[in-house]
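User: Is it possible to get a 3D structure for a protein together with its bound compound? The compound here is zinc ion. I've pasted both below.
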Amino acid sequence: MIDSHAHLDFKEFDKDREGVIKRFFADGGEKIINIGCDLASSERSVELAQKHENIFASVGIHPHDAEILNEESLKKLEELVIKTKVVAVGEIGLDFFRPESSGFSQEKQIDAFKSQLELAKNHKKPIIIHCREAYVDLLEILKNYQPKDDDPRAHKTPVLQGVAHCFLGSWPIAEELLKMGFYIGFTGAITYPKKRVTKDPLGMNFNTEPEIFKVVKNTPLDRILIETDCPFLAPAPKRGSRNEPAFVKYVAAKIAELKSISVEEAEKATSENARKLFGI
Ligand SMILES: [Zn+2]
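Assistant: Yes, that's possible. Here is the predicted structure of the complex:
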């Protein structure tokens, strides 16, 4: 198992970080990608990767911190991108969930996202995308990095590779991202919804399936990554408690259930995908 998205540098792990890491590897865990959200956490991710053989780092500035992105911080980020064991740029993206009235500028987010996409492109690193309530704008921006159909030099390999982390959008959006060559990352959030039995106007029962189940079922197994996003989003059996990499197995189990495959198969495929995308 590979936890492709963890925040082990967060203060929630200050008391038992090494124990949490040990637990994951003792439980059959293979690798962890620790994700930066700003300059400090990106630096801490690099430090964690330097300390542990099977931990790798991603560095980037989260859309919530878009306003810290300027020439100087971008330069610092670039110094981190070239460090050993830094395998991706992220998490970067757009988050329009919080209103602009609370101080988040969408324009700033778009600018910060674009300059970090350039950084990833220049250093040939995959990106880890955070997106909330902004999928339309996201697709619009990512389309600029697709090879143009009418360009005779167009190459089949996309300019940018990456993963839409903690995907919770609809199937048509996932489909667009897949067409562009991106992977879809699922967290414990896919273990929360339940099938609902509703009555139609004639009083007949029918099952409504949550959209995210459809997304999991339709996404090809060779394009799925599993992740915890710990300390957040603990999967159903552990919901409400602090999440940790060892719990990524519950995400694999849910994918196996929805796809009617064995848990081993889900674990094996998602690990292979993460190895391939991040070159680890
Ligand atoms: Zn995250």
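Residues 5, 7, 35, 91, 229 surround zinc ion (CB under 6 Å). DSSP finds nine helices and ten strands in the chain.
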